[in-house]
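Box 3.1 A note on notation
Throughout this textbook, protein chains are presented in two layers. The first layer is the amino acid sequence; the second is a token string describing backbone geometry. Keep the layers aligned when reading.
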Amino acid sequence: MQEKLYFYYTNDLHSYFENWSRVAGYLKEEKERKTAEGNSCWLIDIGDHVDRVNPIAEAFMGKANVSLMNDVGYDLATIGNNEGITLAHDDLHHLYDDANFQVVCANMQSLTGTEPNWLQPTVEIKSVNGVRIGIIGLTAPFNAFYELLDWHISIPLQALEEHITKLKESTDVIILLSHLGITEDQEIARRFDDIDIIIGGHTHHLLRTGEMINNTIITAAGKHCTFVGEVILTWDHSLQKLVNKEAYTKDTTHMAKDLHTEQTLIELTEKADKILGETVVHLDNPVEIKWFRHTHVMQKLTDTLREWTKADVAMLNAGVLLDQLPAGNITYKDIHRICPHPINPCVVELKGDELLEVVRASFTKELTELKLKGFGFRGEVIGRMIYSGLKVDTFYREDGHEYVEQVTWNGEALDQNKSYTVATADTFTFGRLLPEVAKSKTKKYFLPEFLRDLLAQTLRNDFV
């Protein structure tokens, strides 16, 4: 006898609820249909379901996301970095208290001595005909952030080595829920023959029909749930082994919306508006936002960043503020609207020559006009860099490009051998946007505060 095992999954929704009612309707329907047919079917999420860019996620600190997953009927989930490092320790510790699904993550531990009740390193489930399935979850080890929030993420490969042998002894099939990214997933598939399926996420890769490496099939469904994943395993009971592994992704954009979910989202939006509706400050005059020009509010925000972090210098890109603020009462919702990014303040150490190179690079069109997606940035373009503690003199050449002529600190030219502490957005510590910042050997992140918390402080102190 052969038995088919069905797994439907989502990854990296990032609270993009515009797609959620379609996803919810599809998953509910598939689970109901498969169950009615007598088949085994599970719904799984691979992390980054929560993203505080959305007012609902912000207002409820992710718990509304969990409620929405409960409504759909999820069975299993692992956590992503957006659950892990954008919530204060207590908020994450209790995020899944009311979850009707199991949360599995083998490389996450609390540094407070008290583990969340919901956290399990592995889970074992059974099909209707007794096939034993072992589930293990892993998340990306961003310990520079996690440990500031009293969590530790152990090395994924070590966690696998610790648990895979036990799962092999007690289960027939092993599935890894991986919020590690495509490169890590491929390496794990090469090194661990006992893993049958890796359902992935984090790097927003889309594998339409999966990728086979050795004995393992890897799959992932992009981001924002534009696609939903499906894994079908065929177990032969007479041979006592898997005889087929399939992975697909389905485009959700044409699917019908689930009306119950639509109504729930409307209600959550109304509740979120009330929660975020507290007045932060009253503005007598509107606050102007310009992405490619120096503005008063960006200067004051950058000054606040320097003073708050006690750095020598601060720099922030004007693109972090997305829209104007009108005169009148300004609420937390307004502040979230114009600064929705899950971006933390950060201080790095740079030598004078490195800082000078950063300043020069920041005035190039390649950076200021860059349409960035990722690294916590949820805006449109990087925009003009604003400085505090530095005086930057520039000029325009005939080609229309702006160039740095002179940079001074405390009235003197930068000392190329002196170390300066530079406060900025943590965005620039990743990737190659500003290589000198990313490569700095000294980085201090400030958590759980976001830039919008400093914006609220700036408006209270400087705009009343």
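The mean pLDDT is 96. Residues 279-462 form a domain with the 5'-nucleotidase;  domain 2 fold (CATH 3.90.780.10).
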